[in-house]
Amino acid sequence: MAAYQFQTVWRLEAPIAAVWDALADLEGAAWWPGLAVTVLVRGDRRGVGDVVRYDLRTQLPYTLSFMAIVTALERPHRIVLQVGGDLVGSGRWDLEQDGRVTRATYLWAVRTTKRWMNLLAPALRPAFAWNHHRVMSAGARGLAQHLDVRLVEATATVSGR
Known about the structure:
alpha+beta, Alpha-D-Glucose-1,6-Bisphosphate, Chain A, domain 4, 2 helices, 8 strands
């Protein structure tokens, strides 16, 4: 399986609580373009143990489907997920407030399970990274619009393993 590590940073002119609430509401992520969410299992009253299915239409002509289980929620600073399906691995949002700006950093360490993606990974790794960055940029713009705030920055880096 091809492995990837992505780090995305969004800086939004918004209170940390508003950013946290939007990111922690897995079911309400309609603000993220191309993302369809189905809740499969409800966890505890805080949301730990929630299992959701994500179907993500990407900028390239394919869709990724994966399940995410919420393994930790530390309001308003951290959300941790484990994923399985077309992508296997983990994701973690870390949030911090800096004056009027909230910095949301997403660490995404995944392996692809689609055979064609793994076969073509040596040649298409840059296209897959570009695609990830486009999806994350669309999410940043969607969140800013949803919160009616200014998006100060959206950056991403990738490394292969």
